[in-house]
Structure formats: C-alpha cells, structure tokens
Amino acid sequence: MSDHIENLVIVGSGPAGWTAAIYGARANLNPIVYEGAGSRTMIPGGQLMFTTDVENYPGFADGIGGIEMMLEFKKQAMRFDTRVVTEDIVEVDFSSRPFLLRTSGGEDVRARTVVIATGANARWLDVPGEERLAQSGGGVSACAVCDGALPFFRGQVIAVVGGGDSAMEEALYMTKFASEVLVIHRRDELRASQIMQDRALASERIRFLWNKTVAEVLGDEVISGIRLRDTVTGEESEIAVGGMFVAIGHDPNTAFLRGHIDLKENGYVRLPTAWRTETNVPGVFAAGDVMDDYYRQAVSAAGTGCMAALEAERFLAHGG
User: Which CATH number applies to 6-121+250-317?
Assistant: First the structure.
C-alpha cells in the first residue's frame, strides 16, 4: 500500500459531493472525488442526471438541464484542481485513522477525512416504458416537488403511484398544477399517516384508483397513458395521463457503510448533532440525500456539501 494519505476523500458526485469538492479545493485540501462507476439506475452526477429541467435551483432564471447543471458543478470543482476517479468505493474501514477505503478497481486509499455523498436511489416500478420515459424527460419522474411545476405537467391528468406519506405529499403538491391527480395504490387502504390520508381524501382534485398496479407506461416520445392491472381480479385497463410520479420510497446508497458508521433503521446515515454533518466517527462526514430523508432537494444537498467540507477543514486544522 502506498504511504500517501489523502486529506479529503469525497465519495459521490451529486450536488453534495461536487460542492464539498469546491469548498475543499478552495481550502487547499486537494480533494479527490470518487464519482462512481455507474449502474442502470444511478450514474455519476446522481439523480439530477435523469432530470431534464431544473427550475428551482437559485441562480438559473430560465432553468437548466439536470445533466448540464451537474457538468457545470464538476467543471467548477476541477477548475480548483479537484481530482476525479470514475470508480465506486466498495469497502471502508473507519476503525482507525487514517481511514481505509477500497475502490471497485481494487485500489486501497487512505484518508484523514471522508465525506460520504453517495445519495439515494428512487425506487421504481420496473415496468415497460418507465425507465425509458424517465431518462428521456418524457413525463415520468420520482419527484413531484422537483419536476411537477414544469409547464409539461400543467393542466394535465397526473398519476401518482404509492400509498404512503410521500405519495400523499406528491399528490397534494400536484393539485396546484394538474387538472386531476390519480392516486394509484395496490391495496384498498392507504398506509400513510392519518393526517396525510385525511388531507388527500378531502381534496376535490384527487381521485383514488384502489387495488391497482401499473403494468406498463404507454407512449413513444412522451407518456400518453398507463396500463393498469387489478390486484384482485387481474383484469387490465388503460387510462390516459399526461404525467406519472412514482412515490414508493428511496433507498440510500449506504450498503458499503453498514457496520462502519451509525445508520438509521431506514438506512440513511445518522448524524448525532443537529446542524452538523459529522457522523459518529470523528473525521467522517455525510452530506446530501444519503443523510437527508426529508428534503431531498438539490439546493439542500449542495448546502450540506458545503457544511461537510467546512467541517472537514476545521477538523484537520485542529489536529484531526
């Protein structure tokens, strides 16, 4: 193993990771970012790489494409000599310092501080047409707060798939823009909290399709409808919609961290101190959706990336 020890290793390359890199580089920490090797549902740059238009990030009056935004983030980080490796971190050892991380290419990396910014994966239905139309910006999304205000969805009949609090929040949010919101749920009762159920059931713009699952998303360039399957009878039907939001939860990318830092029951990184990004392991910080199971927005992720880098800088300055 090389004797070289990195000051700051950043794992992940969404808004949190690149912001941490910008701040770390400007503090002369010479950070290195492991941006990820990519998979079918997650590629370097995170979930914004599957978003066509971003209109709620400050500073872009006319909006910006998700891919373009992440490339600009990366370009800015590299301007300050951030090093980038297109590999995953697959194993860690935080039991002693310097920390040890192993890449998907088999290399061992040692670090004085680490920022975990691996994000979370939206759960998808894995049905025909869904992934294609989600990746092309054809009207399928996993975040109504991110995308629902776009002109594409305004005045349309919109489907929201799910029965939990997230689905009710998405459905209620879309009543501001849609002509009608269809909540598609595989059972005949919701699993959302009672207050969220009451709000959704009281809305005149929300209609519930009970005991239904999505069998296929229809449409070539853009969504035109969905094929539903009745969970009781097995009967299939089609319904025209102008957009679909999948709200069945997220899975944080923390499998490689289990047993090494403290995680919540839902897999997200637990932060012991409010308004701080340090984990239960001094010198290891978490930023973005990997620790945020509430907001899950690009701007909040970038903010925590800034916080993590500043905390890493101060940790090192105080002899960490």
Answer: 3.50.50.60
